[in-house]
Amino acid sequence: MSNTHLIHRNTIGAALNRSARKYAQRPALTFGERAWNYQALNNAANQVANGLLEAGLSPGDRLAVYGKNSDAYVIAWLAATKAGLVHVPINFALSSEELRYILEQSGAKGLLSDTVLADKVAEATQGLGLTLAGTLYAADEGGPTDFDVLTCARTSQASHEPDVALEGSSLAQLLYTSGTTAAPKAAMMSHQALMAEYMACMVELDINSDDAMLAALPLYHSAQMHVFLMPALLLGAPVYLLEAPLPESCLAAISEHNIASFFAPPTVWISLLRHATFDQFDLTSLKKAYYGASIMPVPVLEEMQQRFHGVGLYNCYGQSEIAPLATVLRPEEHAERPASAGRPILTVETRIVDLDMNDVAPGEHGEIVHRSPQLMTGYWDKPDMTAEAFQSDWFHSGDVGYFDEAGYLYVVDRIKDVINTGGVLVASREVEEALFKHTAISEVAVVGLPDEKWIEAITAVVVVKEGQKVSEDELIHHAKSLIAPYKVPKRVVFADTLPKSTAGKILKRHLRQDLKD
Predict the structure, then answer these.
(1) CA-to-CA distance for 162 and 43, rounded, in angstroms?
(2) Burial class (CB in 10 A: 0-12, 13-18, 19+), 3
(3) Which of 235, 250, 281, 324 sits at 20 to 30 Å (Cα–Cα) from 354?
(4) Distance of CA 252 to CAs 245, 258, 281, 282, Å?
């Protein structure tokens, strides 16, 4: 009997193998001084996959990865997909206690980590009895290890494709959500869900093999890994990887490598625009500026168009559970609708509904819900949460939004970030947009704080541009000129920085707690 899983396979590892056959000698991935062409990258992934299986892991086992961006991180992910392991990316900023929770909740059998995180790993793994505890690239840092990804990738170990029976429905990854209101939960992503998204991203985001891509946001986050890096690699594009999105590093990389496309959340784009050396770099190669992960203030969009000459802007909206891209606002659509999140991509069906799952009229607010082959299978070991998320056979995003008459989506806010002030609901984004129009504002986040009179008092936390001054009274007066009185902040707090995740998202839950304290 023939191996039909090999004949019909359309897994992520198989897709990489196809790209390697087609683009063998083309540059694939560059990280610092290390560069891999497509054939070498595919061979490395195969070698590490075989090494992981020989080390005692079996298809279906969960393999956790706890580290910063590196070529070894990418190879470990690709190797996991080829070996039939379920990749569990973990935010490198998490504590040992948080790491242990994910290892236990996922039932991880293996862990690969950066050597600089060794102390947290040792504390988190005590008594867990992992089958494999290895490192990503310890050999380059002089650390001892039983299994090291980069060492294995550089050896002459068997580079043949692992003979593992995988189907499109096989799990590829457990993506843990940020856990803003409860313990983190893991979205189960299959090979076919991710492959559906990769194909859609190629089309909707105009990704092609001739564009050099810069990848600087954390790879544990689904946006950088699944919307940008993977579609680029499967198309044969050269990818330049940075450990972190430091402003000067990003600007230098764009200039040095003739980068054509780059994704970053608004906080990172703002940091680039504000950097003292911005005007010293030749950034004319940049043709595609992707943004998402949080809402981009319209004044910042206007500044990007002015200072990145000839760049096309793409607004990408979604969330981890949908792999994560759901809608895109393309460059030619920005002029007329700069505040829109665009329209659903070709693999996503989106509605705006009321509490009874009825479609609301254009312009009316409701919850954003989706259907898509990209969606998660469910939450790992959390059937009740899965059932709640998929009520009425649609995935409930937890976001409030509306469609205009032409079918363009506008994201009003996360449901949990809508502020109840005096019994009236106010979207924090609307207040932020108004404040951002003041020329002294660099960053702003608006939250609701418990208040005896107002239920929640609208509170703005503001970072002022370097060299500029502005008072609380001046900003409140400015807001009054643009929005209704009940939406105006009751208080303005000045800060040097805003708390952000390693993926660049402003952490409003931290702001609320800090202000309460």
Answers:
(1) 11
(2) exposed
(3) 324
(4) 11, 10, 7, 9
Q: What's the CATH code, domain 4-9+38-167?
A: 3.40.50.980
* 194-415 and 418-516 in the same fold: no
Residue 291 pLDDT = 96
Query: What is residue 5's predicted lDDT score, i.e. its pLDDT?
Result: 63
Return the CATH architecture of domain 194-415: 3-Layer(aba) Sandwich (3.40)
Q: Cα dist. 82→46, 98, 158, 172 in Å?
A: 7, 28, 14, 9
Q: Determine the pLDDT at residue 256.
A: 98
414: tokens are 């996360």
H helices of 362-427, in order, are 383-389
* Residue spans of the chain under pLDDT 70: 1-6, 139-145, 178-182
Distance separating alpha carbons of residues 120 and 55, to the nearest angstrom: 23
**CB-CB neighbours of 276 under 10 Å:** 9
For 320-388, strand residue ranges (E) read 325-329, 343-344, 349-353, 366-371
Q: What pLDDT does 502 receive?
A: 81
Taking the C-alpha atoms of residue 91 and residue 114, their distance in angstroms, rounded to an integer, is 12
Q: Give the integer Cα–Cα distance in Å for 316 and 326.
A: 8
DSSP class per residue in 6-36: HHS---HHHHHHHHHHHSTTSEEEEETTEEE
Q: Is 219 exposed, middle or buried (0-12, 13-18, 19+ CB in 10 A)?
A: buried
Residue type, 386: T
Could you give the C-alpha distances from 404 to 290, 372, 409, 414, in angstroms and in order?
23, 22, 7, 19
Cβ atoms of 400 and 381 within 8 Å: the answer is: no
CA–CA dist 212, 236 (Å, integer)? 10
Place domain 418-516 in its CATH homologous superfamily.
Answer: ANL, C-terminal domain (3.30.300.30)
Alpha helices in 275-366 (DSSP H): 298-307
Among candidates 331, 453, 353, which has minimal Cα distance to 403? 353
CA-CA-CA-CA torsion sign (39, 43, 49, 53): positive
What tens digit of pLDDT does each residue of 217-251 get? 999 999 999 999 999 999 999 999 999 999 999 99
Residue with tokens 């430091």: 246
* Residue ranges covered by each domain of the chain: 4-9+38-167, 194-415, 418-516
Using a 10 angstrom Cβ sphere, with 0-12 exposed, 13-18 middle and 19 or more buried, the burial of residue 310 is: exposed
Instruction: Tell me phi and psi for residue 151, to 5 degrees.
Output: -60, -45
Tens digit of pLDDT for each residue in 153-167?
998 777 899 999 999
